Amino acid sequence: MDEIALVNAALKGELDAFNQLVLAYQDLAFNVAFRILGDDDLAEDATQNAFLSAYKNLRMYRGGSFKAWVLRMVTNACYDELRRKQRHPSVPIDPGTDDDGEEMNSDEWLASDDPSPETTLEQAEVEHALQHCLEHLSVDFRTVVVLVDVQGLDYEEVSRSLSTPLGTIKSRLARARLHMRDCLRKFEELLPAEYRLEDEVRE
């Protein structure tokens, strides 16, 4: 896919060209938004707002990784959603866990609406633990974990996406991984064996 050609065509008013870019990155954009926000509806809103912003600001694209540029719009849209939630907090109908930290049934832990037998149960446990621990990170830490460890972007792409120095990205990721490791240990007995963490210091 020639992204530069599609951008140039979109700038000339060819909406189909921009739609091709949207189709190429909409799943990635939604998955990033979902992991950051932990809510399907908010993730859909953030994804839609991100692509609207990308279209309105297309002339600001200066080449390079279009994916990184789009993800900047996505993370900005997620930050906007989080700020809006802080201004207008609401009590969730289903918080996901009870006061003792035990799992409760919640579709929010599942990133897919198309579950498969048996493996879905294990996947749900992993999704539950992962999303729970992500949501307990600060938004800056959560974002770098989502982009690097969940979506597989390299450090350079994340640095460009977040307009943040490379050294800061690496530092945040290292600290975020430590927090994730400590948090996931609380779920160790619930996870399938292949997902359990090695505990080098356990006596």
Q: What fraction strand?
A: under 5%
Q: Which structural class best describes the helix and strand composition?
A: mainly alpha
Helix content: 55-70%
Query: Judging from the principal axes of the Cα atoms, what is the shape?
Result: globular
Largest sheet: none
Query: Total number of helical segments?
Result: 8
- Class of the largest domain in CATH? Mainly Alpha
Determine the mean pLDDT.
80
CATH topology of the largest domain: Arc Repressor Mutant, subunit A
What's the alpha carbon Rg, rounded to whole Å? 18 Å
Total DSSP E strands:
0
Number of domains: 2
CATH superfamily of the largest domain: Winged helix-like DNA-binding domain superfamily/Winged helix DNA-binding domain
Descriptive overview:
The chain has 203 residues and is mostly helical. The chain has two domains: 90 residues, RNA polymerase sigma factor, region 2, helix turn helix motif (Rna Polymerase Sigma Factor, Chain: A, Orthogonal Bundle); 98 residues, Winged helix-like DNA-binding domain superfamily/Winged helix DNA-binding domain (Arc Repressor Mutant, subunit A). Helices cover 63% and strands 0% of the residues. It is globular.
